[in-house]
Amino acid sequence: MPVGGGSIGMNVWVENGDIYFYLSRSGSFDENNTLLKQGRFRIRLTPNLNTTHNFSQRLVVNDGYAVISDGNISVKLWADVFKPVVHVSVDSKKAVAVEYEYHNWRYRNREIGKKESFQTSYKFGVPSGVVTSHDVITPSDCGITFYHQNPDTTIFDATVAQQHLLAYKAEMYNPLKDLIFGGKIFGNNIKYSGTCDGIYDNTDYRSYNLSSRSASKHHELCIALTDNQGTVAEWNNKLDGIIKAINVSRDSKSSVTWWHKWWQRSYIEGEGEAKEITRNYTLFRYMMGCNALGEWPTKFNGGLFCFDPSYVKSDFPFTPDYRRWGGGTHTAQNQRLLYWPMLKSGDYDAMKSQLDFYVRILHNAELRSKVYWHHGGAAFTEQLENFGLPEYDEYGTKRPDGFDPGLEYNAWLEYTWDTVLEFCQMALDAHSYGGVDISKYVPWIESSLDFFEQHYRYVASRNGRKQLDDNGHLVIYPGSGAETFKMAYNPTSTVCGLKTVTDNLVKYLSGIGADSTTIARYKAMSSIWPDISYRYVDGHKVISPAVVWARVNNTEPTMLYPVFPWRMFGVGRDSLTVAVDTWKYDPYVNKFNGYAGWEQTNIWAACLGLTDEAVKWNTLKLKNGPHRFPAFWGPGHDWTPDHNWGGSGMIGIQEMLLQEVGDKIILFPAWPKSWNVKFKLHCSRGTIVEAEMKQGKAHIISVYPKNRIKDITVQ
């Protein structure tokens, strides 16, 4: 089961009476941009845990800890929310001895195999000689210190050279250079007891061992973690500061208080047929809370909770560091699904890491536009490295001579620029929902919009005499409807995103009294975006994915993106009929229906008010996963635990319960009256609604602020 807090995740289990856990921390990117684990830990008690009588392993989500007990011995594991420290405490009715083992499979350089290279930013194949370099592990009488140190030259340097940006490398943001991450294991009543070697699930490791000096009824272990870009001495000083600041009693209370506030701000609790899916909603939200205060966003492909890959795919005998689709590659189309539901759950603090991610890489993305095309704006791509450039292999390692250096030579990713717009809208919504100060995000939002205007004016000028069409609109060509509708002319998903973000930016700028020239500029920009495209299928008017497109490359029905995420069609809107007909009659929509991973059928059904379909797809989406912990879904299209699976499930349930149209708040727009449920969710204008469906009747429990109760209707 997952346990964590702040920026830390542990995956905890019991095996043959011993307690094991993997330990991860966000931002632990190595020289190849693999997101490395800190290691594996084993706790052995003498006498051992009795797993056959009175045994329990409980995740106490309300307080953020796990406890393992056999009635006589109790072991508690928790992470400090406010500083990167893990605590393990053992309490026993009778004195017990404890052995702690720190397992490290990076005690030596490890070659990276062809399939295994998917954990890196080289993706489909690392160059010859590239390895995962060894860690430094230093035992002492008072504990064990361990760290991984990136060299001066990393995948960043290879990517910059590949993408013709060497002349600008010194000014570029580089999160990998000289990065050191790791920590120290220490505790009371312990001594270092040597090393031994072993193999666990196909992977050799070296165990560095600590043992209690004497049997006792109480034992405590701490693992303090940190990272730093600089020297080992600087890293050690930072680690020492964290250790000196530990106060177990105070830290425990403050962490529990934080978790209580996390659960008090929102919830969804169902009964009967809704119990399983709402329980799994809560369990997934807990996992997102484990990295709520991390510097780096939670990764869609497992977050902090990946485990031995052979338990996901039996023919993947790789180290526990493995995950598909990379560690430092933040696939925007997938990442967005983890962060959209945080608006209605009110978890604005947890959104910060994802929004800050774009601010950090803004300069590098703007360099792409400047160097390749000599215009402004930030060119963000879909497969996006944590330093703001396209992923190495998907940029194309075998590019034809003369191919545009700003484009990815990739059939799925070419011209896929628009996923950044969803994160821009999240920032604007965070201000609308929770009053979040988004001033530092405005330059990024503006630059993301500027790119589309300037780039497609640039493309039009290269291809013809005029920049706009007969209606005074910009032509988005070549464009892309996600990874699916390729070489598209005015793709609808892009058009809706540009229009929605621009109009909301103007609204925000006007609300804060921004410079009138800036406001006028973006109003003018909004007027040149193309219109949504439509077509007819069996006599029914439906939303088209684009005016025209050359080929279909994936399985995303982007003609429904105007429903979600862009909310231009849906319940309570005059456009609902067209959107429902698109759902019913469009052949691609019917062909691409699904619930695995990032598939969003469950969300669109709810947003269209189709209760029976919403029940079907959201039940499939949020049913128990295949592993012992029910919210470990996957691998789907990505990896296990599949976090964009969980995030899209959260969105679907939220949309069944609450939607907005203008100033109107609609309750239970796609929720069956026969399902009892109680919820507390957030919406725009700082509004918080608590309501329930009980025995077929809707009840409003509370509304904040109270004057918004007049805006609520029950569907």
TrEMBL record:
Name of the protein described by the UniProt record: DUF5703 domain-containing protein
Pfam family, one: DUF5703_N
DUF5703 domain sequence ranges: 1-268
